[in-house]
Design a protein that fits this description.
Elements lengths: L3 E6 L7 H14 L4 E6 L11 H17 L8 E4 L5 H10 L4 H5 L2 H24 L19 H4 L1 H10 L5 E3 L5 H18 L8 E3 L33 H9 L16 H13 L2 H12 L5 H27 L2 H30 L2
Parallel strand pairs: 1-2, 2-3, 4-5
The protein binds tryptophanyl-5'AMP.
């Protein structure tokens, strides 16, 4: 029996190189050897309140990108998360036994909720300062309010449901999803313990035996991801001029001052991009130039830009071609959803039975 693989990407816009090297590349590499379910996480995207038209368009965009990057609909079940309402049922079951404390400690939640806590703290301090009775609870202020929804808090539960609904063995994801996978295993184990069964396995994050990948962004900080300006990420749909412009603007420093000095984070990040996008020789020659303090960042960026353009262009063209064929996209999604629903409805049926319905 082939091992089962599940993963998904949120339809929040175009895919960037972080999505590609962290996840999608492995989706494609796994499709021959494993029984794969790859979906578009459209339920998850509701935490950012997309307009229905954008949501539809973005789902299509990811679907086309999956296929353009080499996913074979004959081998893989490709579908949207919302094609499997069974997922929502499993999510609800898991939520009955997921603890508030563990959800609130999740790093991605803490990052997203920080603004909310800061605001709440500020309001509480103001209330305390203004009130003669510090114990008095004032009504929440609605102006400029940042909300944290239950959906955002229970994001890891929904992810666990996505994965466990097909009883996955492996989940190809980038480094930022590691903690979510750990939570999935916790929830699976807890379900088994509560009901005295050995039903769910322990799905593992997967990158062919290597550590999970984190592709850095162009602004020198953290990981590649969508930013306000869009300049932190290279998208698979970016045209040549845009790629050149973004890379030439990438953050650097004033250059090495000592032979063989350690690279500061911004420079190490740029070199990591060179590593994944350029040839080994290119990497080596810039690394040597850095170590003997003769490096010119402008040359490095020019080379990185040209190699990135070569890498992205075929994907961009293919995505455009596939996007134009609505009927084909619809057909792929319908077939994928049908296969995925078979497995999902079996799991939910068995879970209902275990629970005692
Ligand atoms: P999302 O949509 O943020 O990202 C999709 C995939 O891309 C990877 N990724 C990166 N990898 C390396 N470097 C980066 N800079 C980078 N940016 C993104 C992510 O690790 C991810 O693998 N919660 C998930 C979607 C999801 C899911 C699931 C994934 C929902 N249910 C079930 C796996 C299994 C998310 O928001 O990914």
């Amino acid at each position: 029996m082939k091992k089962i693989v599940v993963s998904g990407i949120r339809p929040t816009g175009n895919l960037h190189l972080g999505n590609y090297f962290g996840a999608l590349r492995n989706f494609i590499r796994m499709q021959d050897e494993y029984n794969c379910y790859f979906f578009i996480a459209d339920y998850h995207s509701l935490t950012t309140h997309p307009h229905p038209d954008h949501l539809r368009q973005n789902v299509k965009q990811i679907l086309a990108s999956y296929i353009a990057c080499g996913m074979d609909p004959e081998k893989v079940a490709i579908y949207a998360q919302s094609d499997l309402p069974e997922t929502a049922e499993l999510y609800m079951f898991f939520n009955m036994n997921v603890y508030l404390g563990e959800l609130m400690r999740c790093t991605s939640f803490k990052e997203k909720a920080k603004q909310y806590w800061d605001q709440l703290k500020q309001e509480l301090m103001e209330d305390m300062a203004a009130s003669d009775n510090p114990g008095e609870l004032k009504p929440e202020k609605e102006s400029n309010k940042v909300h944290v929804s239950a959906g955002l808090l229970t994001y890891p539960t929904l992810m666990a449901a996505d994965i466990l609904i097909h009883k996955a063995d492996f989940v190809p994801v980038g480094k930022d999803q590691e903690q979510h996978l750990e939570m999935t295993r916790t929830f699976a184990h807890r379900f088994n313990r509560i009901y005295g069964v050995d039903y769910f396995g322990q799905p593992q994050a997967f990158n062919f035996g290597s550590n999970l990948v984190k592709i850095p962004g162009l602004d020198g900080s953290g990981k590649m991801g969508k930013s306000e300006s869009g300049n932190n990420a290279i998208f698979l749909t970016d045209d040549d001029a845009t790629i050149r412009k973004k890379i030439m603007r990438a953050t650097t420093d004033s250059g090495p001052v000592e032979m063989n000095q350690q690279k500061p984070e911004v420079i190490a990040n740029l070199f990591q991009l060179v590593k994944v996008l350029c040839s080994e020789d290119t990497y080596k020659s810039f690394d040597e130039a850095y170590n003997n303090c003769t490096i010119r960042y402008g040359d490095l960026k020019k080379q990185l830009a040209e190699d990135t353009i070569k890498f992205v262009a075929p994907f961009r063209e293919r995505i455009q071609e596939i996007l134009a064929d609505d009927a084909y996209l619809e057909k792929v999604r319908r077939a994928g959803a049908e296969k995925a629903r078979e497995s999902a409805s079996k799991t939910v049926r068995e879970v209902r039975n275990i629970i005692g319905f």
